[in-house]
Design a protein that fits this description.
Elements: H1 6-16, E1 22-26, H2 30-42, E2 47-51, H3 54-61, E3 75-78, H4 87-96, E4 105-109, H5 114-122, E5 127-130, H6 135-152
């Protein structure tokens, strides 16, 4: 795992003035939602919206009610194991919809199964991250994802 120090994070934010991004978290585990919100509030300054299932994720992305006024996210953090339509179906829909395919999707899940990793990349996930089980590791992973997508890569406007 790549380690990013507090100083490197501050310097990269100070020197390049990255723009704040809008992130959609698709996660049904309230504990993981809370940890992600905590990481965003304490360390990151990007907006975070949360939906708890695959159908809501697609409605949000397609601006269907009640999400018609929500901005298009710059990044989607997607759990695979969701109630109803699972993350694999959501990923497939996003990457096959011409109006959504440009949005980077990071699969953020408890699974480390080779078949989940392979299938996610076959469905054109931009990254696959297995959630660390400890609090510090989880927050560090969220911060590293954020750092990469805010400070390292260029996202479409």
């Amino acid at each position: 795992m790549i380690e990013i120090t507090e100083q490197e994070l501050r310097e990269s934010k100070d020197s390049s003035q990255p723009r704040a991004i809008k992130v959609l978290l698709v996660e049904d585990d309230e504990g993981d939602v809370l940890l992600t919100r905590e990481a965003f509030e304490e360390f990151l300054h990007n907006s975070l919206d949360v939906v708890n299932d695959g159908d809501s994720a697609l409605a949000y992305l397609r601006k269907d009610p009640p999400y018609q006024d929500r901005p298009c996210p710059d990044l989607v953090l997607l759990d695979l194991n969701l109630p109803g339509r699972d993350g694999r179906d959501v990923l497939s829909e996003i990457k096959s919809d011409e109006s959504l395919t440009h949005i980077p999707v990071v699969v953020l899940t408890t699974s480390s199964a080779d078949e989940d990793i392979l299938r996610s990349y076959q469905l054109h996930a931009n990254a696959f991250v297995t959630k660390p089980v400890d609090l510090d590791g989880f927050i560090a992973a969220i911060r590293q994802i954020d750092h990469f997508f805010v400070s390292v890569v260029r996202l479409p406007s």
